[in-house]
Amino acid sequence: MREDPPDRITCSNKTVLEGDDVQLVCSANGNPPPDMMWIRNGNIQGMGSTLLIKGVTKSEGGTYTFFTNNSLGYKSIEISITVQIRSKSPEITNPYKQVILFNEGKDVSLVCNASGYPVPNITWTKHGTVIGVGRIFKTRVKRNDSSCYTCTADNGIGHAKNASICLDVQYPPSNVKITPSIASTFLKEGDNLSLYCQGDSNPDPTYAWRHSGELLTSQQSRSLIIKNINQRQNGLYRCEAKNRLGFVLSKPIEVVVQYLDPLEVIGSSNKSYSQSNPLVLFNLSINAYPSNTSLSCSPSAPNILTTITSHDAGLNGKQYLVFVVIQNDVDNASILCKAENSVGVRERTFYRRPILLKESFAGQFRLTYPKWQDNLQDVKSAGYNDLKQKCIKILQAAYLGVPYLAAIKVKDFIKGSIIVRFELEVIGQVPDPLLPLREYIKTQGEEINGLQMDYNSIQKSSERHITSRDKF
Q1: Residue 336: which of 309, 370, 298, 375 has the closest Cα?
Q2: What does the DSSP 8-state code read for residue 302?
């Protein structure tokens, strides 16, 4: 029989989907029958005319060599396996839905990673409007860029996939202003003040208020409310808005408080005047804003004449000198003085009243206990001062609430058991200034504070004199 080397190799290339099984088959003639093997990248992949690859992967695609030989020679041929990737709808591996904080003015890169076959196209949208394409979207954020950004992956296979990243752009306060937005506001003393602060910031600011530069610690909200405003709260008010990125002060608003203080008598607090003087002078002071205050004084009787002169006293003050001429036949009259400006009216009435005299009365009573001690004549001794304080307490208790009493004084002690001499100062004419003491001893008993008193010894002297006179 004739011998021949290997010849007439028959093979064909293969195209297969990734994951399928693939079988390569080749045939060759020769005598003696040739040996057959499959080689790839210098490595033997199998023996025989058939090579089976299960679940082929993309990496197993490529060129394979079919090699055959016998004792007379060898022959080989290359065939290829084309592994096609199955079509796959896109999958986004990031971003997951999240919120990222950025400060205004910072550069931001948003990344969207997606897989699929064919490779998906990626677009970026904001509020439904396309703002970029590709895996990475870059921007320098501004405050109005706070929003959710959506990346969409689409390769035409299945449904397009999308995911979102939300940016929270943070910035310091700005456009801080007070409403009502006026340069100044006018209020009357006793009115309520209400101001409101508004501005733009992220995160939201904390608010504070300043009055003439001083921080109002009791006002820590965007609303400033002052009830029953007074003249000391006059001035410039500003709102302060603050967050972790900075703070801003608003433009000031001037609060003008209009007021009219009560009429004041300079140099005296009396509201009466001497009955005996035909000429009376009142020196009055008025503090007010607006300062164009008028003053009028009206007597209650026709035989009283008044004349008023005025001069400025400081920025918001005026002083008035009121001359009053009183006829002698006018008794118990009054003068009504009235100050007036756009805020309102203040009135003060001065009355003509009789002058009350202060009179001093000397009195005494006898103690039957304790017994006389010689040290009671020594005003510096402990015994003298102890007895004096006990007697004063008895007298104070006896005259408690008596309207005409001006003063009490223990003068000294006289031997005779113990005679306590004291002095009462009373206002006006009192028929019996010792009556309250008698009534007190009668109700309390003759033994008080460890002292034994003789009720019948309470006496007053006939000596009486004027000690002082009221003045205007």
Answers
A1: 298
A2: T
Tokens standing for residue 112: 């969207």
Task: Write down the residue that tokens 């000198």 correspond to.
Answer: 321
Q: List domains and CATH numbers for the chain.
A: 4-84 (2.60.40.10), 88-171 (2.60.40.10), 180-259 (2.60.40.10), 264-351 (2.60.40.10), 358-460 (3.30.70.960)
Percent of the chain with pLDDT over 70: 90
Q: What is the pLDDT of residues 272-301, one digit of tens each?
A: 454 455 666 678 888 898 888 888 888 887
Angstrom distance (rounded) from CA 286 to CA 290 = 11
Instruction: Supply the DSSP symbol for 388.
Output: H
pLDDT at 283: 82
Cα–Cα dist 444/455, whole Å:
11
pLDDT value at position 449?
Answer: 84
Buried b (16+ CB within 10 A) or exposed e, 213-225: eeeeeebeebebe
Tokens of 338: 């009235």
Rounded to whole angstroms, the Cα distance separating 185 from 208 reads: 20
DSSP per-residue string spanning 178-222: EES--SEEEEETT--EEEEEEEEEESPPEEEEEETTEE-TT--SS
pLDDT digits (tens, 9 = 90+) for 142-190: 999 999 999 999 988 777 888 888 999 999 999 999 998 888 889 999 9
Q: Which residues sit opposite 169 in a β-bridge? A: 102
- The answer, as to whether pTM is greater than 0.70, is no
